Structure formats: C-alpha cells, structure tokens
TrEMBL record:
Protein name in UniProt: Synaptotagmin-7
Gene name tied to this protein: Syt7
Compositional bias annotation for Basic and acidic residues: 85-95
GO CC annotation, single: lysosomal membrane
Cofactor(s), by name: Ca(2+)
Gene3D superfamilies, per database record: C2 domain
Length: 398
C-alpha cells in the first residue's frame, strides 16, 4: 500500500467519518427533543386546563329568599332530592386564558365605575391590597318575574383571625334597600370557601330590578365581637344583561362603609427571652376616625393576649376625652413562654368610649408571625432585637 500524493490520510478519513456520524446522531436527538417538547408542552397545557376547570355542581346548591317591600315575593326553595343542581353558568364561570382574564378585569372596572354605583366615592384613598375575589351569577326570568342571584365561591381571602384564617360568609343586598338582606352560611376556617347558594327574588318587576344595585359583602364571622368586613362588590343591574344567567369573577374592594382611614397607632414591642415576656407600649395615635356626633372621639386602647383560640389576658389604657391625636405612653407586660411564641397573637383595639351606648370600635391591629406584612415585620423585628423596644406605626383596620 502506498499513499498517493494529495490524497487524504487514513487518520483524516477516520476523523471525518466520526464527525459525520456525530452530526447525524445530533440531528436525530434534536428532532426527538423538539418532539418531546411538543408532547410535554401539550400535556402541560392540558393539565393547566384541567386545573382551571370549575368544579360545577360541587356541594349543595341552596336557594333562599326574603320578602321585599318593593312588591316582590321571596320564597325559600330547596333542590329536588337526588337531583344534582347545575346550570349553564357553572360551565362557563372560570376564566381560562389571559385574554379572558383581561376582558373580565376590564368589565369589572367598567361596572364598578359606571353611573349608579353608590360606593364609588368610598374607594377613593383605599389601599390596593389583595382581598381575594368572589364568583357569582345573576339573571332574570321575565315570565316568572324572578331575579336569581347565585353565590358560588371565593378565592384567596385574607386571614382576619389571629389563627391565620377566616370564617367567611356573604351578605346580599339590593341597594338602596339596606334593611332587608340575605346571608349565606358561614364557612369555618376557609380562605377559599364554596357556598353554591341560590337566592330568588320572586314577583319582582323588571322595571324595579334595573333600578337596584346588587351588593355583595364578604365578612369574617366573629363569635365574640363584631364581624370583620373582608371586602365587597357592587354592580348596577341596569348594566347587566339579565336575559340569561351571567357569571362574574370580581375582585373584592375595601372600604365598603365609606369610612376611609381609621387612623394610625404608634406602639413598641420589647421581647425578653430570658424573662419569657413581651412589653407592649402604646405610645400615641394620630388622625383617628371621629365616632361622635360632635366630630371627635374619646379613645382608649385594649390589648388582648391570645394563645391559639383562647383569650389569655386583657389590658387597657385610660380614656382620652375628645382627642383624635391622643398620647397614651402606657406599657403592659405579658408573660409568654418562648415555646408558645409561634401560637401567640396580640390584638390591639382602639375604642371610642360612649356613656350612653355601646363603645365603638375605631380600628384593630393583629400582631403575630402570620398577620399582615406590616404586622409580621414588626413581630420579626421584635424577635431579632431582644431586650430592645422596637417602635412602628400601624394603620388601623376594620
């Protein structure tokens, strides 16, 4: 064997063959990769659609109603035994794409800002914190002169209780009538409740229905004190096509009572791990809401030490007469073992003293490791800086 001049050597040919085989394998693998990606992408998309599918007919659909002074008759009816309640609205409630989300969001904003909504001014200056959202449907039967409102479920509700959850229920009004209301059942310790309750307003003329505003208020049930409002939704019925059941997802809005800011409270926390104690110093408040007819308040502060679901100890400051910017400078010590710190909540309530009637709540603050962002920050700062008073302003909440 003799190599010809200019011909490739055997080693060169061998390297070329290896490179050719490698390129072929790479092309095949790339093709498989793209095929796998398409398959996996399709499977992932299907799984998302499955997750986004509403749980139609889940739970028991209940129907309730009340008699209205406007001439409408309300009847409390129950579903036929053995029959699973369902309607077209259950199958088209959940938004499934970003386009649908955008349309629903724009529709929500248009309805909330449309003429006839009584609570537009109440939202000015309110915080944009996430209060969750609610799903409901509404429609009108012209033959039977019946307005139907179905409250389905809510999602991502904020925790209002010191235990880190809420006990939500819904009140239904047809504004401007505030005397007559309907209520769903209370869902215990649930931030994503399912109600599936239907409310009928029978014998209610259409010309009067379109003059009303459907108002839904979500509240947290409290056994020992006043129920805490979570958020609300209002829709002028003259802006809704009532010829068929329309289903909505609506973001809950704050400040439904139109009260605006309730004021702020400056307080400090001092944790002493060796003494197993927390000292709460109520320093001062500013811009408190006026609760009395004279445009002022007589504020004092209650401090509750809570462990799990039990009230352990209560302290309170003196009352400051006719003062919306009171200075208290009162300290209270609470014995809290370190091992119980994670299950401990300190509830601070600013009250308005009233001699002739029940004292009014101006606002509350829940301090624990699982409260709101500002409260949690204060709690963690207190633990990170033992034996040092840590002061912070807090916005009072309903």
């Amino acid at each position: 064997y003799r190599e010809l001049p200019g011909a490739p050597t055997r080693d060169v040919l061998l390297v070329s063959a290896i490179i050719t085989v490698s390129l072929s394998v790479t092309v095949v693998l790339c093709g498989l990769c793209h095929w796998c990606q398409r398959k996996l992408g399709k499977r992932y998309k299907n799984s998302l659609e499955t997750v986004g599918t509403p749980d139609s007919g889940r739970g028991r659909s209940e129907k309730k109603a009340i008699k209205l002074p406007a001439g409408g008759k309300a009847v409390n009816t129950a579903p036929v035994p053995g029959q699973t309640p369902h309607d077209e609205s259950d199958r088209r409630t959940e938004p499934r794409s970003s386009v649908s989300d955008l349309v629903n969001s724009l529709t929500s904003e248009m309805l909330m800002l449309s003429p006839g909504s009584e609570d537009d001014e109440a939202h000015e200056g309110c915080s944009r914190e996430n209060l969750g959202r609610i799903q409901f449907s509404v429609g009108y039967n012209f033959q039977e002169s019946t307005l139907t409102v179905k409250v389905m479920k809510a999602q991502e509700l904020p925790a209002k209780d010191f235990s880190g959850t809420s006990d939500p229920f819904v009140k239904i009004y047809l504004l401007p009538d505030k005397k007559h209301k309907l209520e769903t059942k209370v869902k215990r310790k649930n931030l994503n409740p399912h109600w599936n309750e239907t409310f009928l307003f029978e014998g209610f003329p259409y010309e009067k229905v379109v003059q009303r505003v459907l108002y839904l208020q979500v509240l947290d049930y409290d056994r020992f004190s006043r129920n805490d409002p979570i958020g609300e939704v209002s829709i002028p019925l003259n802006k809704v096509d009532l010829t068929q059941m329309q289903t909505f997802w609506k973001d809950l809005k704050p400040c439904s009572d139109g009260s605006g800011s309730r004021g702020e409270l400056l307080l400090s926390l001092c944790y002493n791990p060796s003494a197993n104690s927390i000292i709460v110093n109520i320093i001062k408040a500013r811009n408190l809401k006026a609760m009395d007819i004279g445009g002022t308040s007589d504020p004092y502060v209650k401090v509750w030490l809570m462990y799990k679901d039990k009230r352990v100890e209560k302290k309170k400051t003196v009352t400051m007469k006719r003062n919306l910017n009171p200075i208290f400078n009162e300290s209270f010590a609470f014995d809290i073992p370190t091992e119980k710190l994670r299950e401990t909540t300190i509830i601070i309530t600013v009250m308005d003293k009233d001699k002739l009637s029940r004292n009014d709540v101006i606002g509350k603050i829940y301090l624990s490791w699982k409260s709101g962002p500002g409260e949690v920050k204060h709690w963690k700062d207190m633990i990170a800086r033992p034996r040092q008073p840590v002061a912070q302003w807090h916005q009072l909440k309903a």
